[in-house]
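FAQ
Q: What does a multi-component entry look like?
A: The components come first, one per line:
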Amino acid sequence: MSDADNPATDADAHAHHDHHGHEGPGYVTPQAAIEESEPEEVAYVIGLYVGTDVDAPDFLAVVDTDPDSSTYGQIIDRVEMPNRGDELHHFGWNACSSSCHVEGLERQHLIVPGQRSSRIHVVDTADRRDPELVKVIEPEEVFEHDLSAPHTVHCIPDGKILISMLGDANGELPGGFLELNDDFEVEGRWDTPGDIDMNYDYWYQPRHNVMISSEWAAPKTYYPGFDLEDVEAGKYGRQLHIWDWEAGTVEQTIDLGEEGMIPLEVRFLHSPVSTHGFVGAALSSNVFHFYEDGGEWHADKAIDVEPREHDDWDMPVPGLVTDLLVSMDDRYLFFSNWLHGDVRMYDVSDPANPRLADRIWAGGLFGPRNPIEGERDVYGGPQMLQLSLDGERLYWTTSLFSTWDNQFYPEEGEQGSVMLKADVNPRKGTMALDQEFLVDFGDLPDGPARAHEIRWPDGDCTSDVWL
Amino acid sequence: MSHALTFEWADGRTARVDARPDETVVEAAERESVALPFGCLTGACATCTARLLDGHVAYRRPPRGLKPDQREAGYVLACVAEPRSDCRLRVGVDVHRELVDNPWK
Ligand code: FES
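Then the predicted structure of the entire assembly, as tokens:
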């Protein structure tokens, strides 16, 4: 057996570049990610000032997640963007485990789009604790391709980057996909304009030559805020699009119906042989299980969150399933009920029949205002989630989208977000809120900020894909 | 011809800037380092919503982020609105907040 076959005997087992026994970024398999990854020491978290009167640009925060550090649970660095008004939202790596065969490529650059501005930033994280903005693609360059409102960033094999775009250059439909090359230059459109109408999140499973994309609405519809009239007028999405990944064409469209209003995050199981995954329908507060059977794709409602009466509300409050993720071992599904205020953990060993394992209440309309005694108030409910690669630590932030926050949780903008964490016991299927960890985005030099998506330097449960 | 813009915030603060011909309200404010909220700068997101108290504006691009009744009520999108006279505008993030209530409450 050569050293390459058995990285554990390699004297350089923990050297920065070659500790996984392969040439490129990431891990050979999801199981390798679980076994070989070190606990996350820093998190990259989006912080924003859009939607407040604070006169400062949005930023990327570096949060210390090392419990042995004296700055545990604190923001230790911030990369300010050059302009105001971006609404930084979702972001992603230039490379993930789908490129682990590509020699010389590293998971080093974060692609950080502005959801409102359509500006795309590139941040170099060579120094993990002190990342640096190295490039900005201005909105005009994006509008040239008749696209706007960048959302999900996935690296695609061989160094390219694909970004789902929710609108055309005017903030109307249709959306599409923008491709960047490995020098972070706009290469052009990936799809054929008009293949889809609405767009939002997407995930690809290359071994099955499939990609699935979901739908929010036209930017001009959701940007200003949530209006029920727009729902009644059919301006919000409820479809999934099944793509031929190689050809970049839509092969099938699934209408999720009334129970699938506003399908947002799409998560395939991590195992590259799997044809199962989940999507959360935010407005209908359901989780759908999608899968392939006999060459056709199907989506069935697998979890139904019941609305709840609230004294201050005229209508029962929907949970609003805004984010979900699958643990790296494909055993657990976590999702957030942003309006109710809980984050749930389901055993999805049988993906068609999820079983509620545990849940935590923090903030929101029904959770405790003070989930950690002696610490500040929490307003918004659990929202963007991120799980450690070993599945033992779940983190979340509380802001959804500045204008929607302002409608449902006005205090979120005034007091700022928090980032919280639960310790997860995957063997028992339980979670416990970490009483030592609260990152206060309300306490920053420029004023209170919102916090959104979270990423790890060594790969994520919400972005790594395997060939 | 340039036009005088007077901004009024909810907290009582005011500011005055001169808008050059063909400048939008946001461009004039930015040039004189007065911070107004904005996002898309293309008339789609309504982050820059202001309330026109006096004067009139013409739109450089269609104000897609506002619904017809909101326009009728005097709301304008400062990023695509070019002043056509001296204007007095209520600005700040709370102007936008007036547009979007919690629809269920
Ligand atoms: S900044 Fe988006 S509409 Fe004015």
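Q: Is there any commentary attached?
A: Sometimes. For this entry: The two ends of chain A are 25 Å apart (CA to CA).
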